[in-house]
Design goal:
Radius of gyration: 14 Å
Number of helices: 3
Number of domains: 1
Structural class: alpha+beta
Distance between the termini: 35 Å
CATH architecture: Roll
Order of helices and strands: HHHEEEE
Helix content: 10-25%
CATH topology: Nuclear Transport Factor 2, Chain: A
Largest sheet: 4 strands, antiparallel
Oligomer: single chain
CATH class: Alpha Beta
Number of strands: 4
Strand order of the largest sheet: 1-2-3-4
Strand content: 35-45%
């Protein structure tokens, strides 16, 4: 599968044009720290689209990271909508989102509120609330 030109996370510039992966989530996937929990959430979505299990695990808070994690085979990611990004403390935040995908011919809409923490200047995914 060829790498996408547009960033899978759906971010756009001020004119509403899709941002290129190289200018959006690409640097984060290459190891640059995310400047916010929302940007980390968007880069994690892009990692799901691009099957970057390494990035998903590395961006997961070590104390909350599962011992085993696999990507579901056959998933076609359709889009991400970030509904809310809230700082809940100096180094904590929550991001509410809707991710859409198709698997086995069935459309799925995943809505969640994820918690994030900043440790040593880097944001990490912790878990989903409720």
């Amino acid at each position: 599968m060829a790498a996408p030109t547009d960033c899978p996370c759906g971010s756009t510039d001020v004119r509403g044009r899709a941002l290129p992966l190289a200018q959006c989530c690409g640097p984060l996937l290459a190891g640059e720290p995310a400047p916010s929990a929302e940007r980390l959430m968007r880069s994690r979505y892009s990692a799901f689209v691009l099957a970057r299990l390494d990035y998903l695990l590395a961006s997961w808070r070590a104390s909350a990271r599962p011992a085993q994690f696999e990507l579901e085979p056959g998933v076609k990611w359709l889009g991400l909508q970030v509904r809310e990004h809230v700082l809940t403390g100096a180094d904590t935040a929550e991001v509410e989102f809707v991710a859409r995908y198709r698997v086995g011919g069935r459309a799925v809409r995943q809505q969640a509120r994820s918690r994030f923490v900043r440790e040593d200047g880097r944001w990490f995914y912790v878990d989903d609330v409720g």
